[in-house]
Design goal:
It contains five helices and six strands; from the N terminus they run αβββαβαββαα. It is an alpha+beta fold. The strands form three sheets. Strands 1-2 form a two-stranded antiparallel ribbon. Strands 3-4 form a two-stranded antiparallel sheet. The chain has a two-stranded antiparallel ribbon with strand order 5-6. β5 and β6 form a beta hairpin. α1 runs antiparallel to α4. The radius of gyration is 27 Å and the shape is rod-shaped.
Length: 189
């Protein structure tokens, strides 16, 4: 984005006009830079919403751009709308009696981004490493008898955990992929 500025040193008004043109050009660059950042963040926000899986309805994604002099700070923020209550019974007898219920509140953002108890880390595809595994293969993620839990009706369920969806990671990748096309859209459009 280049713009020639012509001036003659014969008149003082030419110098003032050149300074005025430079200020206008600077404001135009700042406006387009902010628009570029907002568009890029919007693409990341949409990606995060789409890839957050079942937990997305409990997560709010927002974007912020802060102008700090000649610098910009851009934020894509994920906020829990509410914590999710997970409940289970450790044994069938507990489920039948309705006693000894185990429960905890968990962040939907953490479940969406990192999953829980999942056997394979899909990002790096390393079998046996990831959520639910511990050093020396201690843990139940790889155990064929694995994790079982009983619902409120006393029905036993096997679990291999919940796969991470990586909404924030996917948002970052999308924004990185879209830098050039978004810049062309803003500066050439």
């Amino acid at each position: 984005m280049s713009k020639p500025i012509r001036l003659s040193l014969n008149k003082a008004s030419d110098l003032r006009d050149a300074v005025k043109e430079l200020r206008t050009f600077k404001n135009e660059i700042n406006t387009k830079t902010e628009r570029f950042l907002w568009l890029l963040l919007e693409k990341g926000k949409i990606t995060a919403q789409v890839t957050s899986g079942v937990w997305g309805r409990f997560i709010s994604f927002t974007r912020e751009v802060h102008v700090m002099g000649d610098r910009y700070e851009c934020l894509l923020i994920a906020t829990d709308g509410q914590k999710v209550l997970k409940e289970w019974y450790p044994t069938k007898l507990d489920a039948e009696r309705g006693t000894n219920v185990r429960s905890y509140h968990v962040s939907p953002i953490l479940l969406a981004e990192f999953g829980s108890g999942w056997l394979v880390d899909v990002l790096y595809a390393i079998p046996g490493v990831g959520q639910g595994t511990m050093p020396n293969n201690y843990g139940h993620a790889a155990d064929p008898d694995g994790w079982y839990w009983y619902d409120k009706n006393g029905v036993k369920h096997h679990s291999i955990g919940e796969a991470p969806k990586y909404p924030m990671h996917n948002a970052m990748l999308r924004m990185m992929e879209e830098i050039q096309s978004t810049a062309k859209e803003v500066w050439n459009g």
